[in-house]
Amino acid sequence: MLAPSPNERKPSSVSEATPKNSIQVIERMMALLDVLADCADPVSLKILSQRTGLHPSTAHRILASLTGSRFVERQDAGTYQLGIRLLELGNLVKTRINLRQVALPYMQQLHEKIGESVNLGIRHEDEIVYIERTSAGRSLVRVVYLVGGRAPLHLTSVGKLFLAEDPPQAVKEYAKRTGLPGKTAHSLVTLASLEKDLERIRRHNVGFDDEEAEVGLKCVAAPIRDDEGGMVAGLSVSAPTERHQDNWPTLVKETADAISHALGYLPGKR
Predict the structure, then answer these.
(1) Residues 224/232, Cβ–Cβ less than 8 Å
(2) Are β-strands 217-225 and 79-82 bridged in parallel, bridged antiparallel, or unpaired?
(3) Which of 12, 87, 205, 252 is the most buried (most CB within 10 A)?
(4) What is the mean pLDDT of the chain?
(5) Which pLDDT belongs to residue 269?
(6) 26-47: per-residue pLDDT in tens?
């Protein structure tokens, strides 16, 4: 059998080497960007080399390419910082994010764990509007939280989360504006009882609805935040009172935090 000629062997060698080299360059590039992201001030080549473990000449070569693409900016002092191109791309990604699409897979995972309805609600003026829901399919209680459904803020676990974000004066104005109407004997219909509940929410970052909107139905909710730290939605689990479990607040909060992370939120950024 004739041995392959050099020309025949070359494509195989290149095809095997190129992906490996390309991945290595990308990994090094990301390492440099990560260091720049961790530093508030411009960073010197020496520090970038030390932090990434890259040889200065290698780091300099990659930084030159990133600078040319505006992913990195080079200062007069020979230091580097993240470039404007990242902001442009970040804003583009942000405009294309669909809250429902991001949240739904996490909601479904939570639904599979607990087997109960999981709701996604947003605020519209003095009401909560439910924009997504997974159905438990076994509840005999008439659940009010249907997609498109609305409810007063103070009667729902998600709504109270939003009220807890407001300053005290805004809560007082909400109470005066709405009159705090109730639906059940458990509804919070006085400003004092509402403020007490909101203070508990601020401490624990979890909201509850204890048969306040519908007799026999309890809910637990946690906030979802965007990349700027603002609350954009609330995630809740609703189920008949007798089926509630003690670990649900933890599970709901973990899921809401995962959705927040997917939206770009970093803990402590508020």
Answers:
(1) yes
(2) unpaired
(3) 252
(4) 84
(5) 57
(6) 999 999 999 998 888 999 999 9
